[in-house]
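Q: Fold this one first, please.
A: Sequence and structure below.
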Amino acid sequence: MSPRWRLFPTRFKVSAIGTLYIVATPIGNLEDITLRALRVMKEADLIAAEDTRHTRKLLSHYGIKTPLISYHAHNQASRGPELIRRLEDGENVALVSDAGTPGFSDPGADLVARAWEAGVRVEAIPGPAAGVAALSLSGFKGDILFVGFLPRGEGRRLKLLQALAPELRVIIMYESPRRLARTLTEIAGSMPHREVLVVRELTKKFEETWRGPVADIARELQHAEIRGECALVLSCPAAAVMVPPADLEGCLLKAAKERGLSGRRLADQVAGDLKIPRRQVYQTYLALKAEGRVE
């Protein structure tokens, strides 16, 4: 990996510029890594890792002794400029996340943006990505929308799910095992006409998958003890009447004001008026209530 060269006319000298390599690493099974990724990590001057302890296990497994430095959400403001300076000084840096491809639901995108702004060469070393792997297991067809992790706050989360309800694309998202049952129940309320694939511990020894109508999977996993990060893939919606979120909110607010209703009675009335699933309407009502717009 020879460095790129840049001419500085005002200084009348040539300076070497390194390359930032975006290296995909295994999401579970250590065998899921490319020969190119191993070579790049061996030849790089430095590896910037989200968790150095986690990455050191991978490096030890393959006998890679390249120096490690941490780069994560809590130090990216200070560590980012430092890494850019080292790249500008001619060092080659391999950026890795804890699992999968950097830039998806981790701070890697910030460093990549800094590199582009600084005129540093950026090169992708493709490989595993949990969302893509889960999609390949699902058998769902259609264009894709990657959401990542849902908001933790109930109001924001329900509002996002309601906004996603009219989506005609396959939706990929990640979820913590602690919040999986709750999230599936909320998805069943806002997007009842979809199927879902849930996979936990993807590529690992105890990998498990569930696939079927989202309401059925939500009931099946309601009291299950789930461990390990989960990936969810939602199919394109089955043929159904799709009401835009703004229109549904407007109908709820109008019915609440004119009929003096609230809660499930309000949801029942609006669902009957629009001829759509009551759960979809009730989830929108809960999001409005969390914002203080209805009682």
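Q: Good. Now the second chain.
A: Here it is, same layout.
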Amino acid sequence: MVEFFKAVFLGIVEGITEWLPISSTGHMILVNEFIANTGFTSSDLFLYVIQLGAILAVVTLYFKKLNPFSPSKTAEEKQETWQMWFKVIAACVPAAVIGLLLNDYMERFENWQVVSAMLIIYGFGFLIAENAKAKNRVTSISEMTYKTALIIGMFQVLSIIPGTSRSGATILGAMIIGCSREVAAEFSFFLAIPVMFGVSLLKIATYDGVIGGTDIAVLITSMVVAYAVSMCAIKFLVDFVKKHNFKPFGWYRIALGVIVIAYFSLIK
């Protein structure tokens, strides 16, 4: 029963932090300090595969926009959809090449010192980017060039550093090179689909443990929760950036980074 409660809680954390640029790793490192970090819910398989629930939320919310075969689309709209997918694939190349090569090496940096540093650095990054008030040269994904998509993909590679946040790196990178907040957030959502599906399937394929019926039930429970919470988190972020900037997330990251430092260096 305890594992089910942990699954629900971790599903909530995943659903919120995967999409908001606040670092899921930064939150998980704190969460694991306050709940029993044992059992199936502490395994890499569980922590990565619950992301599939979050990904399904993107597919659900943007199904029409993502579907190049939609009968309600004109030939031109179908072509734009295909071009969008090609840009997403182009942006995923750096993560597929560099990310996979360095993934095992970067695992040694999964400690509170690196996480807190990245939380604070990227927090200030958002504040600086917003204060710079760069002109939005890209106001829709259809206007985005393949070069721009590839550069955003390079920023996504930075997310292999614990505490960076995949959405945080891609959104900040997109804004720096001239994308509007809305485009930066939306393209970050779409980039997550192949990346997170790939990582989750890789974890499943390479898992050498034994998964029992209870473990499967726990995993499905967490995925369902992550799906439901992700639906809300994505809608919130889309609506938020239409009226506000990313400064609140920057300040939040800085505050969380300070809390992590205080907890591990002063309290624990």
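Q: Anything worth noting on the second one?
A: The first helix runs from residue 2 to 17.
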